[in-house]
Amino acid sequence: MIGLPVGVTACLFDLDGVLTSTATLHRIAWKQTFDEFLAGATEGERGPFSDHDYNAYVDGRPRADGVRTFLASRAIRLPEGEPDDAPDAATINGVGNRKNEALLRLIDERGIQPYPGSVAYLEAARAAGKRIGVVTSSANGEHVLAVAGLTPFVEARIDGVTIVEQRLRGKPAPDSFLAGARALGVAPGAAAVFEDALSGVEAGRAGGFGYVVGVNRADQAEQLREHGADIVVDDLADLLDGAK
């Protein structure tokens, strides 16, 4: 058994922080990018980017949304620019592309490891006949899944590229998870959402999904519950029969 209510036939997993440890790399890349940007800023608050900033303004959101939301919290405004802006451009998209360059360097240097408990859960979910999809705000979703060796588990992938192509609202709006349910051919009420980000569990609750699992990777169990998680676990293996 995999710890899901009767009637839930599909699982929609966030990627970074739920299936793989890449959330740590995202956090490092965001801090490098924003600390460098803030050091040269001429307006707004210029204190360093913090863990609170990551959890409140960036985690789980599409890249441009994260830049926009964080800078707004510091009273800094930039023009939107274009998706292909150079990483040194003083635009929302430019800052986001700078972060992506930093992230890809970190992936090359450190590699990507899936959480063993998450792999065990994926194996159990597949054996139980559950449909499996990945819903991530990252535009690097396909690459991360491949490097982590998780592609064979995934029937449908909604990622940052899909979000732009289909003009979906990013988390905490439920649009990307709803697209994941459509891609698997199931109603939201028949799908479970697995998320480590506050914006992600909020999206799962807003979309009317059958079960929302909060994965507590950042010591924020109570906040995950407050934002809509039905259950909070430290690792997906905790949901499996026989877990201690």
What brief labels describe this structure?
alpha/beta, Rossmann fold, DNA polymerase, domain 1, six-stranded parallel β-sheet, 10 helices, PGP-like_dom2, HAD-SF_hydro_IA, magnesium
What features would you describe in this structure?
- This protein has 244 residues and is an alpha/beta fold.
- The protein has two domains: 10-21 and 113-239, 3-Layer(aba) Sandwich (Rossmann fold); 24-110, Orthogonal Bundle (DNA polymerase, domain 1).
- It is built from ten helices and six strands; from the N terminus they run E-H-H-H-H-H-E-H-E-H-H-E-H-E-H-E.
- It has a six-stranded parallel sheet, sandwiched between helices.
- Strand 4 (191-195), helix 9 and strand 5 (211-215) form a beta-alpha-beta unit.
- Helix 1 (22-39) crosses helix 4 and helix 2 packs across helix 3.
- The longest helix is centred in the middle third of the chain and has 19 residues, at 92-110.
- The model has no long low-confidence stretch (mean pLDDT 94).
- It is an enzyme of class 5 (isomerase).
- InterPro entries: B-phosphoglucomutase_hydrolase (IPR010976), Beta-PGM-like (IPR051600), HAD-like_sf (IPR036412), HAD-SF_hydro_IA (IPR006439), HAD_sf (IPR023214), PGP-like_dom2 (IPR023198).
- It holds the Pfam family Hydrolase.
- It catalyses: beta-D-glucose 1-phosphate = beta-D-glucose 6-phosphate.
